[in-house]
Structures are given as C-alpha cells and as structure tokens.
Write a structure and sequence with these properties.
about 300 residues, alpha/beta, 7-stranded mixed beta sheet, 11 helices, 18 strands
C-alpha cells in the first residue's frame, strides 16, 4: 500500500521567521505531486530539501494573501530556466490570473510551457480537479478574503488478488481486471466462483484535508469527517482568543476541537504567529483536546 507523503515547505504565517517560511506544502499522492499554496521562499525550500518537482503539475492556492502566493512568480521563472515543458495548472480565486498575468508577461514571457489558470469559487464546496486516481474538492473557509481549503480523496482502489486461488481455479489473465473490480469468475464448465474467494478487500482510499487560513468554523466538519490527515491552521494560543476572532484565525484549542468533532485520524498544526519563538504551548493546548496531534515543522515530511 503506497503511503501519502506531505512535505511542509513553510508553516509560518504572514511574517516569516528564521524557523518558519510562509505557507507552502508539497503533497505526493498516487504518483503525482501537488503544491498547496506558494508563499515566498517555496522554491528555496524545494532546493534545500533536494526535492525533485518533475511530477508537479498542479498548484492550489487557498486565498490571495501574500504569504500564500508571493512565491508563484519566482517558481514559474525558475521552471522556465530549467526548460520545463509540461503545462502548469494553477487553481485559485479568479483574481489571481488578473493579478499575475502582467508579471508573467513581463518576467516570464518566454517560458517553454503553458500556464493554465482554473478559477475557483471559494465560497462553494465543489469538485475542482479530478483524474483517474483522485479527486480534489474545495472547502469553504471563514477568513478576511475569499478563502478555501482543499480535500484530496483517492478514488476506490481495486481488490487484491489471492494468487493461490487464482492458480487453483486456473483463472485466465483476461479475467484479472474484472475480478479485481469485484466480478465473480465463471469457469469454462459454468461454475460460478464468488469474488470473495479470489480476492481480499481493497485498501481504503486515503483522504487529506488542507485548511489554512480560517476562523473557527464547524461547517467544515462534515466535509472533512474521518480524513486520514488534517492540516489546519493554529495561529494563536488561547491567550490570544480575542485577536484570533478579530483576524479570523484559530487558536490551537479551536483547531483541536474541529479535529475532534470531525473524527480525523491525525492533525498537523501550522500557520504559527511569529510571536511564538517556541510552539510547545500551541501543541499542549491542542493535545489537551485532541490526542492525535503533531506540530507541523518546516522541511519535514509526514506519511499516512
């Protein structure tokens, strides 16, 4: 069973620190790479970690605050210098295309690949990307500008062949795909062999939710219920609850409450305010509510 890999390139908030760059994550799922937000310094982190981005085809931007998209033009320019030829797809609020186009025309007019923008309505829960192996859905969030998170879902997988039983019944190769998809096997003599005798259940599809930035919002709970991993902003400690409300961000305790209500399997915290040189308080306040929590860290990879 192939694990999903999430590499955090930056999990700070608007003000960069020596420890945390602004928001950016690289998700590797079903052999593909997806970039979630692209704050300033994203490409530097990719180079520091020696991550090959040759399979990166789609970038998903949560909202148009600079700490989530200022790294785009630099990344596009570098892709051009590296002679990338594959199309680059950017999924975001429609204003991003209008804002970024002049920079692309001025600095990146000769890049040898197409840059394709796909507008998203952040206020709606909708399918925003789909291929043969997975789907991506928008998650409406509550912030000062139109903002959405993203839910990545694997499509159902095929059942696992029991090789000994396949050999016992001398199942032809031509039947394998149908059996993996759940069909019974019918022998040349007309005997029907139940699929459960030939296969075991498929691995459950993996699901990952990315939610940054947002105020406390229980409306998202049904959309992320039971995900294997949730990355959710935890900008403030509980002592800054009033400030969190004014800026439409979350405290660590509020974030943990969302994870608890949604019954997620793992919670990764991030988007820390620069006021905290140490994040232990953030972690402890979240863990008091939801035990399956870890602190997000720049340049660290998580598997699930």
């Amino acid at each position: 069973m192939e694990n999903v890999r999430l590499t955090i390139l930056g999990c700070g908030s608007a003000l960069p620190t020596r420890r945390n760059f602004p928001s950016a994550q690289l998700l590797e799922m079903r052999g593909k790479q997806f970039l979630l937000d692209c704050g300033e310094g994203t490409q530097i982190r990719l180079r520091q970690m020696k991550i090959s981005d040759t399979r990166l085809g789609h970038i998903f931007i949560s909202h148009l605050h600079g700490d989530h998209c200022f790294g785009l033009i630099g990344l596009i320019s570098t892709f051009g210098m590296l002679n990338r030829t594959a199309d680059l797809h950017i999924h975001a609020h429609p204003d991003l295309e209008r804002l970024l186009k002049p920079f692309i025309e001025y600095f990146c007019s000769d890049v040898p690949f197409k840059i394709l923008f796909h507008p998203i309505n952040p206020s709606k829960h909708a399918l925003v990307y789909e291929d043969r192996s997975l789907s991506v859905w928008s998650i409406p969030l509550k912030h000062r500008v139109p903002t959405c998170g993203y839910l990545f879902e694997e499509k159902p997988k095929e059942r696992h062949i029991i090789r000994e039983m396949i050999d016992f019944y001398r199942v032809p190769v031509a039947w394998m795909r149908r059996i993996k998809q759940g069909e019974d096997y019918v022998t040349e003599e007309g005997e029907r062999v139940p699929n459960q005798r030939l296969t075991t259940a498929a691995d459950p599809p993996k699901r990952f939710a990315y939610c940054s930035d947002t105020a406390y919002n229980e409306q998202m709970v049904p959309l992320i219920a039971g995900v294997d991993c949730l990355y959710h902003e935890a900008t403030f400690a509980e002592s800054e609850l009033v400030r969190a409300g004014k800026t439409l961000h979350c405290t660590a305790r509020q974030t943990a409450e969302i994870a608890r209500l949604a019954g997620v399997k793992k919670l990764i915290l991030g988007h820390y305010s620069a006021r905290y040189p140490d994040h232990q308080m953030i972690y402890e306040e979240a863990k008091a509510v939801f035990p399956h929590v870890v602190l997000g860290e720049d340049m660290k990879t998580y598997e699930f």
